[in-house]
Write a structure and sequence with these properties.
The protein is α/β, with parallel strands linked by helices and 360 residues long. It contains 15 helices and 11 strands. Helices cover 39% and strands 17% of the residues. Helix 1 runs parallel beside helix 11 and helix 7 packs across helix 12.
Length: 360
C-alpha cells in the first residue's frame, strides 16, 4: 500500500514539477509555515526548481518565534518550588541565557514533556501537591486545544493548573514583514494548518493590501507543487489573487467552533516575537474570567528583557532576510548536537531543515 501511495503521489507531482521548471519569470515566494519548510527540505524541492524561483522561509515555526525572554521565563518557572512545568518536547532544548530547560532539569528543575495540553491537566490531577504550569506555544492551530483544556480545568475545579500563554496569531507578523520593502516578495504560500482554523479568507488582505499572489497549500509533495504552480500562474499573469490548493481540509471561513472557543477563553494582547519585536495584538492572553488559570497572574512575575545568543541570526532567518547558510554559526558552531538558536532545535525550524536535508 505504501508503494502504491508513493507511485500515486509521484504521478500527481511530475506534471506539476515540469510546469514549474518551465517558468521563465523570476519570483520570490515565502512559505510561511514551518511544516512547509521541513516538507520542502525533505523533498529536495529547492534543488530541482529553477534558480530564479526562490523559496524563502517565514515566521511559521512556533518554537523559533518564541522570544528569548519567554524561554528564560519558562526555565525560571520550572525552578520554582513545588512547581512542575509541562510543555512540548522541542522546548526542552532551546537555549536560554543560562542554558536550556533540559539543563535546568539536571540541576533539579521539574518539567515534563507532553504531547497535548490535556496531558498537562492529567499531571495536575496526579500531582495535587504541585503547581502544574503548561507553557503554551503555537499559533491558531494549537490554541483551541489549550482553550479546551482551560475550560476542562474550570469545569473540574482544578486549582493547581495554570497556563503561560506564548500563543501567537499568524496574520500579524506578515503585516510586519511585508512593510519591509527589502523583502520584495511576489507571493505567499499560506499555512494549511492555521488556515484550517481561521479560514482561507484570512489571507485575502495580503492580496488586497500588498498586491501579492497567495495560495493555501497542504504538506504532501503534490500539495506543495499544486500551491506553487497556482502561485506561479498568478505571478506570471500579474494577478494578486488568493487560491486554495488544500480544499479537502481548508474552507473559506475555517473552523467556526474552534474560533468561538478561542474568543471565549483568549483575547488579543501585544506579544513579543523573536526577530520581529513587539507586535500589537499579535498574541493570545487569557480573559479576566479565566485569570485563575493565568500563570503570569498566579505567580506575579515579570518577563525580563534578555538578549539573543551572540552571533545567532535566527531572527534574520525568521524575517526571510537570509537563508540559514548565511549565518556565521551554521554548521560551524551551531548544529543539532549544539544548537545555539531555536531554528536549529525545532522540527519546523529552517536551520534544522537545511542542516538535515540541504546539500553540503
Amino acid at each position: 500500500m505504501k508503494y502504491a501511495d508513493e507511485y500515486r503521489d509521484t504521478a500527481l507531482a511530475l506534471p506539476l514539477l515540469r510546469e514549474l521548471q518551465a517558468v521563465k519569470r523570476p519570483m520570490r515566494i515565502m512559505e510561511i509555515c514551518g511544516s512547509h519548510t521541513m516538507a520542502i527540505a525533505k523533498s529536495g524541492l529547492r534543488q530541482v526548481l529553477p534558480e530564479h524561483i526562490e523559496l524563502i522561509s517565514g515566521p511559521g515555526c512556533p518554537v523559533c518565534v518564541t522570544a528569548q525572554s519567554h524561554i528564560d521565563t519558562m526555565i525560571e518557572l520550572a525552578r520554582q518550588p513545588r512547581t512542575r512545568l509541562a510543555t512540548f518536547g522541542d522546548m526542552f532544548r532551546v537555549p536560554g541565557v543560562h542554558g536550556s530547560l533540559s539543563a535546568a532539569m539536571a540541576e533539579g528543575a521539574k518539567a515534563a514533556v507532553v504531547y497535548s495540553p490535556i496531558e498537562a491537566l492529567e499531571l495536575a490531577r496526579r500531582h495535587a501537591d504541585e503547581e502544574i504550569i503548561f507553557f503554551a506555544v503555537g499559533f491558531e492551530t494549537t490554541a483551541p486545544g489549550v482553550a479546551a483544556t482551560i475550560l476542562a480545568a474550570k469545569a473540574a475545579g482544578l486549582n493547581n493548573f495554570s497556563v503561560f500563554s506564548s500563543h501567537k496569531t499568524m496574520p500579524a507578523p506578515l503585516h510586519a514583514l511585508l512593510s519591509d520593502p527589502n523583502l520584495a516578495l511576489d507571493g505567499l504560500l499560506c499555512p494549511g494548518h492555521v488556515a484550517a482554523i481561521i479560514g482561507a479568507s484570512a489571507f485575502q488582505v495580503f492580496c488586497d493590501d500588498y498586491h501579492l499572489a497567495c495560495c493555501v497549500a497542504g504538506f504532501e509533495l503534490a500539495d506543495l507543487l499544486s500551491g506553487l504552480v497556482m502561485l506561479a500562474r498568478r505571478i506570471s499573469a500579474g494577478e494578486a489573487r488568493l487560491d486554495n490548493a488544500y480544499e479537502r481540509t481548508v474552507s473559506w471561513l475555517g473552523n467556526e467552533r474552534a474560533q468561538r472557543m478561542l474568543v471565549e477563553v483568549f483575547e488579543p494582547v501585544d506579544m513579543l516575537w523573536r526577530g520581529l519585536g513587539m507586535l500589537a495584538g499579535s498574541g493570545l492572553g487569557l480573559r479576566d474570567k479565566y485569570r485563575e488559570f493565568d500563570a503570569a497572574v498566579r505567580f506575579s512575575f515579570s518577563v525580563a528583557e534578555t538578549k539573543e545568543p551572540a552571533g545567532c541570526r535566527c531572527g534574520d532567518v525568521i524575517r526571510g532576510a537570509i537563508q540559514p547558510p548565511a549565518c556565521p554559526l551554521f554548521r560551524r558552531i551551531c548544529g543539532p548536537g549544539n544548537p545555539i538558536g531555536p531554528c536549529m532545535v525545532s522540527g519546523e525550524g529552517a536551520c534544522a531543515a537545511w542542516f538535515a536535508h540541504a546539500p553540503l
